[in-house]
Amino acid sequence: MVLEGREMDGIGNTMQKKAAELERLAEVLVTGEQLRLRLHEGKVIKDRRHHLRTYPNCFVAKELIDWLIEHKEASDRDTAIKIMQKLLDQSIVHHVCDEHREFKDLKLFYRFRKDDGTFPLDSEAKVFMRGQRIYEKLMNTENNLLQTREEEGGTFERTLVASEFIDWLLQEGEMATREETEQLGRRLLEHGIIQHVANKHHFVDGPLLYQFRMNFRRRRRLIELLHERGRSIPESHDSPFCLRKQNSDGGNTSFLSVSPTKEIKVAVGVRRSSMSSSCGSSGYYSSSPTLSSSPPVLCNPKSVLKRQVSPEELQTPGGPFIKKTFTIMGDAVGWGFVVRGSKPCHIQAVDPGGPAAAAGMKVCQFVVSVNGLNVLSHDYRTVSNLILTGPRTIVMEVMEEV
Asked: Which CATH number is 31's domain given?
């Protein structure tokens, strides 16, 4: 059954309110998990001994605060304490003996509850984490579910057909019956994880199109936990940069990108092969799941290049360009840069906290090769695909103007 008119408006208002209530929970859960993975990778979390007793998978509060400041996640120790207190208040971390309800800048052991199995799963958190698992499974398996499709005269990217999505969920063993799977889809929509492409319908088994609204892969800055969000904008799937296409009429390729500082940027997302395939555009997002009924106002993309150059100009001996080589290991979120353009493509944006920035990558550099393959004659889609389907560690040669 398709709901229309006042009934759909009522459902929309309820879902908006629900999404607003879950916004903070969603962001805290994702941000906390990203931090946990980074700390494991950096060996900050490890087994530690105190008074002849071993405490598995824990970190020292004082050392973690040092780490947060060193990695520019906090400007000072007070801010770092506030960030970790937020995670402690939300039951993401806790003192290993539960003797301290405050996060203290001392040599005390704390642990992520996910590492000791004590994370409290209420009904809301269960739906959210179920949605995240489905999202990851969908992005990590080969399938043709996410495609550009048309509905009601509009063209929408990275869409799911409801009936095909239900087929896939049943095949993956997520639910036992078709009716139960449809109810799962409705819960995902009510929690702001998926949406109807035009925000007109609830989730129903049939030909209607839906999209994932949450980008679980966007690199969250920990400082975001301390700031209340204003009006949010629906997210795409690229990380750490996300964009939403404006409409499908003619050659209009308008995009919007909003950073945590409200800067306008436009870029094309590149992330590890475990993430979703590129939809051709991306940006930097700080938003969370919402169910706004009207689309955002969008802007035209602008290249960061002052002028376009040819492959021949880049390779001219004695020219004003120098070659640089970067070895970039993707982290739990991605590589942290975006490419755009064609023949040659260029670096459009770099996440200042990502692996690419740490390796020395900068905007306006031209991409020469990826893992030994010359890409001077390729466009950004081909380059993105090479990275997405390659290893976690990539070797890139670029040309930089001197």
From this structure: 1.10.10.10
